[in-house]
Every structure is written in structure tokens, then in C-alpha cells.
Amino acid sequence: xxxxxIKLYSLDLKRxxxxxxxxxxxxxxxxxxxxxxSLRYRxxxxxxxQKLELSDKLxxxxxxxxxxxLVFPYKPVFELNGNFIAPLQNSARxxxxxxxxxxxxxxxxxxxxxxxxxxxxxxxxxINNENGDVSEGVIQTTGFKVVDFEVVSYDLSSEDKESxxxxxAEKISELKGRGRIADAKAEEQAQIHLANGDKxxxxxxxxxx
Length: 209
Fold this sequence. Notes:
Shape: globular
Distance between the termini: 121 Å
Radius of gyration: 30 Å
Order of helices and strands: EEEEHHHHHEH
Largest sheet: 3 strands, antiparallel
Number of strands: 5
Helix content: 40-55%
């Protein structure tokens, strides 16, 4: 008769958290274990989704933060044994892949991803699979419902950073080469003008002008 106020179970739940309040990078995240005995346990958890491909084939590593509410205890208690991080990341990745692939890197840089943005609303809706088959939603895969989502930071994946650096270096070299060509052409034109000037002066002298 006292359900859900009585403690029906307890669980050692593996989760991720920020090492400090100013954290916003993958290296600022650490794993810890919480003892959970609440039927409506809530937690705020950061996690990383790596190598999300954009429309220009560049890939980004995205640091996200979700607010989760436990709504289906059976899953994390009896099936996952408290290890729900990987299923959550997999679900987030499947949702984020088609969303971010609609933008190139330049477009994504200026895309609103705040708590009231269309981007965030879409991610929450799709990760919980509110309009689809509930068996595919994060509730069924982890036992948690996503009640809030935030993009904390993102950056090019390490391999793409290297390729971008190489591409930029090649572009700079190309521009420098063009500059040298332009300088050479300008010098050639100057010599031509000088020669034409000398020729005019010679003609003027010979004609007694």
C-alpha cells in the first residue's frame, strides 16, 4: 500500500559525470558508481558520441549532456546490471547521425543547439522514440527516459583535424605559389612598360622631338 514511497530495490549504477563544474571536453568526464534506490531516480550525465559524419564528410566528436529519469527499473536492474552507458550512447548515436548529416561543418557551427532549439526538441523526441515503435526507444534499451538534452561542445575528430591541417597547409602553399606567380607577372609587366617607355624616348630623340 505504500508503493512507490517504499524502497523496493537498490542498484549500483555505473554513470558518467564531470570531474569539475567547468568541464566541457571528453577528458573532463569520469565514471563513477551510484547507489540507487529510488523509483524515479534522476541524474544529469555527460557522454561523448564520436565521429558523427557531416554532409561534407568531415566528422565531429560531440560532448552531450542528458537529464535522465528512471521509468522502467526492470531493464537496468535485472538486464543491464547497472551498465546502461553503452546502450545510451548507441541510442544517441543512431538519433544524431541522420540529424547532423544534414549540415556541413560551416552550417553546423552556426546551428542553434540550445535547450529551446528545434535541434534539441528533435533529438529528445527521436531518442525517446515518442512517435514510433517504443521497442526502439531509449526507454526500452536503458530503462531511462531523456527529459533534457544539451550539446555541450563539439570538435573535429582527430583524423579530420589532421586532414584539415594538411588541407589548410596545401591551400596556403598554393596561395603563396599564386602570389609568387603574380609577383613574377607584375615584374614582367613592369619590365615591358619600362622597355616601352625607353623605346618611346628613343623614338622621340631620333625624331628630334
